[in-house]
Specification:
- The chain is of the alpha/beta class.
- It contains 14 helices and 21 strands.
- It has helices at 16-27, 43-48, 50-68, 84-109, 167-170, 187-198, 218-230, 286-289, 325-339, 368-374, 389-393, 422-434, 439-443, 454-464, and strands spanning 6-12, 32-36, 112-122, 125-130, 135-145, 149-151, 164-165, 179-183, 202-206, 234-236, 239-246, 251-257, 264-268, 270-273, 277-279, 312-314, 353-355, 360-365, 378-384, 400-406, 412-419.
- The strands form five sheets. The protein has a five-stranded mixed barrel.
- α3 (50-68) runs parallel beside α6.
- The protein is globular.
- The protein starts with 5 loop residues before the first strand and ends in a 6-residue tail after the last helix.
- Bound molecules: flavin-adenine dinucleotide (FAD).
- Flavin-adenine dinucleotide (FAD) binds at residues 12-18, 35-38, 43-45, 49-50, 53, 117-118, 146-149, 167, 188, 280, 283-284, 316-317, 323-326, 328, 356.
């Protein structure tokens, strides 16, 4: 069996980090096995993360548009209703097509796929309890830990995935709750809050910190919050949940100001706990091998993704860095390149971040607050989508492009976009920053008309000179 042959690379975990590492390793001519316990490939991202959430964001946006915007575009429809089972079915179909697609890629690239729970028994052996109930040992010269992350639970709150749900439960609610409370104003909470808000829930977001999505540029965050409020999302910032009581009729939350003070009661039907994610290493046997971790439980690695135990590597959500699928993929490729004796590189300053609400918010590089803190002299160029012809033509013009460039050299340090499709628009900026472009480089690049991308060009013009259309 595959278990008794020695592999060049054994990957534990078949998420975006692990499956990409496995495919890349095989492409580099390394004999590779990937072990995954879930029964399907693709990890958190494909099964209960990026993909199902984007499927629901799209479907709920379509419903919302049909209900609230079609008429103004001259499209008459009868009454518009949500068919939730069909909507969830569409999401499930997207997930199963994609996860099966990865299995196909494994076959094509000759990656051996072992379905089961992997546990390290030495720096070159993984024992696997397979999903068929068998035990086998998979040997490898190099072992990559790509076991990802799991939902962070909050003390005193038990997730039952019915009334008190994690993001996983929030992807499959059996009916649209009348009221939904989201604990945590990170991107996952805002995305899932948007989904259910569009389908009719009254959404209240409770956040311990002073603001939503703390990594976002302050100015963009402010407009973003205003947009979400216009969409009827309510926020209770600097507020902590100190008590939760479920009953047949719903959930009663006891809230308190973050700094302490008078308690209030908030009643709701469903609570989504989205207060971050934690690295997942349960049952991996790391202690016994002495693999070093930090206080947050993340595996410590050097720039070649090597742990302190030779032959054991780690990538993705289980190591420090942004917990994002595309970051995990970059880690996977670079890690395997090092194993193959090549050079690998991930620039963590240039990992784009996207919030897939409507409008979307996407960014790359530094925020204005970060640039200020560095003491760099800088210029800011902005351009609103209200002045972008395409956005006006389609009547979807809420948003802005903000570019921050070093004053002296005009080199772009950060780009922040709020707009429909910002998650697609950002990549021109990612490439520009990657190649050390100046704002003038973008401004002097011909952009097709009429496109949303022209807003980036105009913001670039505004950075070192003047825009045309405002
Ligand atoms: P994971 O995807 O978590 O995969 C790890 C895999 O390892 C799992 O399948 C697990 O079953 C398996 N495993 C663990 N231990 C073992 C073991 N001992 N033996 C065998 N198998 C094991 N990121 C984005 O970039 N864009 C998004 O839009 C986005 N949306 C998200 C929405 C939600 C609701 C959530 C929860 C996450 C989202 N993310 C998004 C984050 C993204 O899913 C993660 O960053 C990404 O999946 C991390 O990849 P990974 O390979 O490190 O780990």
């Amino acid at each position: 069996t595959s278990g008794s042959d020695e592999n060049d690379v054994v990957v534990i975990g078949g998420g975006p980090g692990g499956y990409v590492a496995a495919i890349k390793a095989a492409q580099l001519g390394l004999k590779t096995t990937c072990i995954e316990k879930r029964g399907t490939l693709g990890g958190t991202c494909l099964n209960v993360g990026c993909i199902p959430s984007k499927a629901l964001l799209h479907s709920s946006h379509m419903y919302h548009e049909a209900k609230h915007s079609f008429a103004s575009h001259g499209v008459k429809v009868g009454s518009v209703e949500v068919d939730l089972p069909a909507m969830l079915g569409q999401k499930d179909k997207a997930v199963s097509n994609l996860t099966r697609g990865i299995e196909g890629l494994f076959k094509k690239n000759k990656v051996t796929y072992v379905k089961g729970y992997g546990k390290l028994i030495s720096s070159s052996e993984v024992s696997v309890e397979t999903l068929d109930g068998e035990n086998t040992v998979v040997k490898g010269k190099n072992i990559i830990i790509a076991t990802g992350s799991d939902v962070r639970s909050l003390p005193g709150i038990t997730i039952d995935e019915k009334k008190i749900v994690s993001s996983t439960g929030a992807l499959s609610l059996s009916e649209v709750p009348k009221r939904l409370v989201v604990i945590g104003a990170g991107y996952i909470g805002l995305e899932m809050g948007s989904v259910w808000g569009r389908l009719g829930s009254e959404v209240t977001v409770v956040e311990f910190g002073p603001d939503i999505v703390p990594t976002m540029d302050g100015e963009v965050r402010k407009s973003f919050k205003r947009v979400l409020e216009k969409q009827k999302m309510k926020f209770k910032l600097e507020t902590k949940v100190v008590g939760v009581e479920t009953s047949d009729t719903g959930v009663k939350l006891t809230l308190e100001p973050a700094a302490g003070g008078e308690q209030t009661i908030l009643e709701t039907d469903v609570v989504l706990v989205s207060a971050g994610r934690v690295p997942f290493t349960a049952g991996l046997g790391l202690d016994k091998l002495g693999v070093e971790m930090d206080k947050a439980g993340r595996i410590l690695v050097d720039h070649k993704f090597t742990t302190n135990v030779p032959g054991i590597f780690a990538i993705g959500d289980v190591i420090p860095g942004p917990m994002l699928a595309h970051k995990a993929e970059e880690d996977g490729v670079a890690c395997v390149e090092f194993i193959a004796g090549k050079e690998g590189h991930v620039d963590y300053d240039l990992v784009p971040g996207v919030v897939y609400t409507h409008p979307e918010v996407a960014s790359v590089g530094k925020t204005e607050e970060q640039v200020k803190a560095l003491g760099v002299d800088y210029r800011v160029g902005k351009f609103p989508f209200m002045a972008n012809s395409r956005a006006k033509a389609i009547d979807d013009a809420e948003g802005i492009v903000k570019i921050i460039a070093e004053k002296e050299s005009d080199r772009i340090l950060g780009v922040h976009i709020m707009s429909p499709n910002a998650g697609e628009l950002i990549h021109e900026a990612v490439l520009a920053v990657h190649y050390g472009a100046s704002s003038e480089d973008i401004a002097r690049t011909c952009h097709a008309h009429p496109t949303m991308s022209e807003a980036l060009k105009e913001a670039a013009m505004a950075t070192y000179d003047k825009p045309i259309h405002i």
